[in-house]
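Task: sequence design from structure.
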């Protein structure tokens, strides 16, 4: 099979480096160019020494990446991917955006939560939000792929079977999520500084995190009705991993057996979603460095409540791995190509 040329814009961020690691193992990909504003002109393997002898490309500007590549991954802060997407559209090249610019259906939601309007609103009709397990059929029709956020990925996979099968009420959904420090990005901030993070654990941006509208958008989609959630993220003193615990009130007459049956049916054919046996708990350790999402189901029958625990690696299934999964679907490669790594325990 002919190889495609792939470029990474924002290759020196955490997600960009994870993309490079995965794509280096992809048999149908040639990494043609990588870019970085901060390190332009340097060798990629000088910035990340683990790539020495593996990826010794010189970091270029974004324009060079677009010219040399068939598909471009953008791993950039919000607001920076739209101009790239416009250029890619003009040149007939696929853009897969790991940022937030193409996640929202409604520009008003983007403006409210990201405090800026679209700079190129006309191109959004070519974009598709693609969480593979839920929107696989949209991938091939996309000219711009909006890759889901990390928290929304763990939460959507936790909730979709319960909501799509009307097992739970759509009001009073409470989501308690915890993320490793890499979720904050490579730029140092006070709350990700080692002395402040080590031996610490706290909530942040309670009820005001920017992933909230994306979470509500996807859950409303699968439920078939507009809903609102209470979303509280927390910062874990670990490098990578997300654990989301979701509390949903069961509809009358719904049994434990019915819930497990619906989840088993929903994910029976999914390579990367693993339903944990009864009595066990999803653990970030068991998905580390992998594209898996592990889900465990728990029941508080005194309160008639379903509790779902969902874990992913925020850098893989929550970012780079899912982006490669979308690329594989788009080009007709086996969906797990370059994504078959067994999770690391240590």
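Answer:
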């Amino acid at each position: 099979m002919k190889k495609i040329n792939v470029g990474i814009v924002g290759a020196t961020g955490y997600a960009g480096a994870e993309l490079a690691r995965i794509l280096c193992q992809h048999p149908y990909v040639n990494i043609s160019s990588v870019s970085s504003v901060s390190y332009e002109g340097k060798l990629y393997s000088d910035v990340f020494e683990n790539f020495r002898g593996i990826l010794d490309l010189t970091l270029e500007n974004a324009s060079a990446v677009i010219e040399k590549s068939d598909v471009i991954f953008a791993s950039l802060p919000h607001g920076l991917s739209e101009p790239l997407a416009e250029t890619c559209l003009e040149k007939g090249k696929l853009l897969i955006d790991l940022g937030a610019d193409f996640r929202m259906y409604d520009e008003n939601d983007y403006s409210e939560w990201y405090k800026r309007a679209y700079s190129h609103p006309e191109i959004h009709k070519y974009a598709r939000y693609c969480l593979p397990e839920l929107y696989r059929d949209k991938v091939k029709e996309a000219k711009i792929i909006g890759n889901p956020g990390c928290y929304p990925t763990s939460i959507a996979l936790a909730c979709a079977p319960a909501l799509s099968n009307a097992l739970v009420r759509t009001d009073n959904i409470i989501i308690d999520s915890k993320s490793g420090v890499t979720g904050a990005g490579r730029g140092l901030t006070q709350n990700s500084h080692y002395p402040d993070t080590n031996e610490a654990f706290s909530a942040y941006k309670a009820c005001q995190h920017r992933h909230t509208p994306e979470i509500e958008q996807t859950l409303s989609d699968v439920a078939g009705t507009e809903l609102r959630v209470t979303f509280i993220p927390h910062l874990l003193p670990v490098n990578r991993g997300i654990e989301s615990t979701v509390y949903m009130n069961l509809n009358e007459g719904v049994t434990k057996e019915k819930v497990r049956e619906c989840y088993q049916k929903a994910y029976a054919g999914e390579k990367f979603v693993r339903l944990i046996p009864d009595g066990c708990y999803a653990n970030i350790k068991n998905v580390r460095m992998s594209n898996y999402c592990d889900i465990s189901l728990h029941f508080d029958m005194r309160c008639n409540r379903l509790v779902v625990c969902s874990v992913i690696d925020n850098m893989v299934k929550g970012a780079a791995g899912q982006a490669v999964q979308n690329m594989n679907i788009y080009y007709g490669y086996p969906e797990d190509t370059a994504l078959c790594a067994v999770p690391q325990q240590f």
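DSSP finds eleven helices and 13 strands in the chain.
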